[in-house]
Amino acid sequence: MYWLAGNVLIDRGNGRQAKQAMLQTTETLQQRDTSIWVFPEGTRNLGKGLLPFKKGAFQMAIAAGVPIIPVCVSTYANRLKINSWSSGKVLIRSLPAIPTLGLTLDDLPQLMERCQQMMRESIEQLDLQLTKA
């Protein structure tokens, strides 16, 4: 069902399959007017701060020449009561698009660092808003 909905599953244990899935996703970005949602950390982090970013999402964006639009979520670990009607508050913010057109893989480390820094600062601001509320 997940696959039928258009989701791409990446098997990190199978390098060849993972690379093929990334190539197919890049081709889709290039050929269709579509967006993809990628978690650049490559895994769940339980809402306890940003983990190091993986390269795959940024390589795809550069190869397809599409912008990256970071979406940030306030820290939710220890703030939400799961299975409750009044479970707590979470703030979400999308940041300005980061263009990748004209970038090469040589630009990858700076692009990743820029995106992570922007997201880290935004999450800190969101968390501060919640503590003031």
From TrEMBL:
Residues 1-76 form the Phospholipid/glycerol acyltransferase domain. GO terms for biological process: phosphatidic acid biosynthetic process. One of its GO terms (cellular component) is plasma membrane. The keyword Acyltransferase applies. CDD domains: LPLAT_AGPAT-like. GO terms for molecular function: 1-acylglycerol-3-phosphate O-acyltransferase activity. Its EC number is 2.3.1.51. It holds the Pfam family Acyltransferase. InterPro entries: Plipid/glycerol_acylTrfase. The keyword Transport does not apply. This is 1-acylglycerol-3-phosphate O-acyltransferase. Keywords: Acyltransferase, Transferase.
